[in-house]
Design a protein that fits this description.
By secondary structure, the protein is an all-alpha fold. It has six helices and no strands. α1 (3-30) runs antiparallel to α5 (89-111), α3 (44-60) packs antiparallel against α6 and α5 runs antiparallel to α6. The model has no long low-confidence stretch (mean pLDDT 86).
């Protein structure tokens, strides 16, 4: 894989994480259960770290990191979470769960590519962090069922 292809994949993952950070903020704002808010809040640092690491990997490969702003998909997911939040905490968690599954799918596809070694390591570490977030979100949703 050439550097430009690697940059494009890493930028895509970084944008997923940027959208994820905005979605998490919206979700925490809509949640009513303080215990769930605390658990999800503890994952915000992991998301921000993923963004920093992915953007650094993009720049190391000669690319330009994405701006820290939502794209169309991010606006859509944030609106979806807001609407789900009207119904219940369970609805917010379902929206987060759906988003996490999309992110995990993107990471899994990227992990199967032949990225430069350092970039591969960054992707694997970010994937592992998001896996923990998915487990938390899914576990909290199951408890509210």
């Amino acid at each position: 894989m050439n550097n430009q292809d690697a940059v494009n994949h890493l930028k895509s993952l970084a944008q997923y994480e940027i959208d994820h950070s905005f979605l998490m903020q919206q979700a925490v704002h809509n949640l009513k259960d303080s215990e769930i808010i605390q658990k999800l809040g503890s994952h915000r640092d992991a998301i921000e770290d993923n963004i920093k690491q992915l953007c650094a990997a993009v720049e190391k490969l000669g690319g330009e990191a994405p701006e820290h702003s939502r794209d169309f998909k991010g606006f859509f997911m944030q609106g979806y979470a807001a609407l789900r939040g009207i119904t219940s905490d369970y609805g917010v968690l379902q929206a987060l769960d759906s988003n996490e599954k999309l992110i995990m799918d993107a990471y899994e596809k990227t992990l199967h590519l032949e990225l430069p070694q350092e970039a591969q390591k960054v992707v694997q570490e970010a994937y592992n962090k998001d896996k923990g977030i998915l487990q938390t979100v899914h576990g909290q949703a199951e408890m509210l069922k």
